[in-house]
Amino acid sequence: MVLTSYKPKTVIVYTSLTGNTEQLAEMLQAAILNKELPVELYRIEDFSLNELSTYDYLLIGTYTWGSGEIPNELHNLYDAIEQLKRHQLRTAVFGTGDSFFAEFCGAVDRFRDMLYVKTQLVATLKVEQMPQHSDMARCEKLAELIN
Ligand SMILES: Cc1cc2nc3c(=O)[nH]c(=O)nc-3n(C[C@H](O)[C@H](O)[C@H](O)COP(=O)(O)O)c2cc1C
């Protein structure tokens, strides 16, 4: 008997000003593809919030702005998840920041707190500024949680 195994549908949605978070998003995408799982990658500007309910996993990538704040361009995504009423959506939030600031990757923490309440939060990942080759292992660990 042949059993078809279901492959979860994953989307990575991110924002990035100077490319650090974009690079991390691409590393995560590569780690997920290495597991032979489907994954889509969008900058927030190119992602339709109406599609949120069609995914099993949502991975959000963000830099941190101001004093530990979520960038403006992610506010609509934040609000949409809060209102989604889809507690079974599995989520992760990742980001890059600068530990010079008081709230290192504060935007990741702020998303984490909301995602923990509103969704099934499976992971968070914070990276100092530009991702290094050694961060690939952390991306692979996160990818392991997608199943
Ligand atoms: C005005 C400004 C405020 C920032 N505030 C924070 C902060 O509060 N916490 C933090 O960890 N990083 C902060 N950062 C650093 C950025 O989040 C960090 O450089 C990040 O890697 C940029 O990501 P990107 O290359 O994807 O745009 C700030 C940067 C700027 C320019």
UniProtKB/TrEMBL annotation:
Flavoprotein as UniProt keyword: yes
Gene3D superfamilies: 3.40.50.360
Membrane-spanning segments: none
Role description: Low-potential electron donor to a number of redox enzymes.
GO MF, one example: FMN binding
Cofactors (names): FMN
SUPFAM superfamilies: Flavoproteins (SSF52218)
Span of domain Flavodoxin-like: 10-147
Native species: Planococcus versutus
Keywords of the record: Electron transport, Flavoprotein, FMN, Transport
Protein name (record): Flavodoxin
InterPro entries noted in UniProt: Flavdoxin-like (IPR001094), Flavodoxin (IPR050619), Flavodoxin/NO_synth (IPR008254), Flavodoxin_CS (IPR001226), Flavoprotein-like_sf (IPR029039)
Family label: Belongs to the flavodoxin family.
PANTHER family: FLAVODOXIN 1, FLAVODOXIN 2
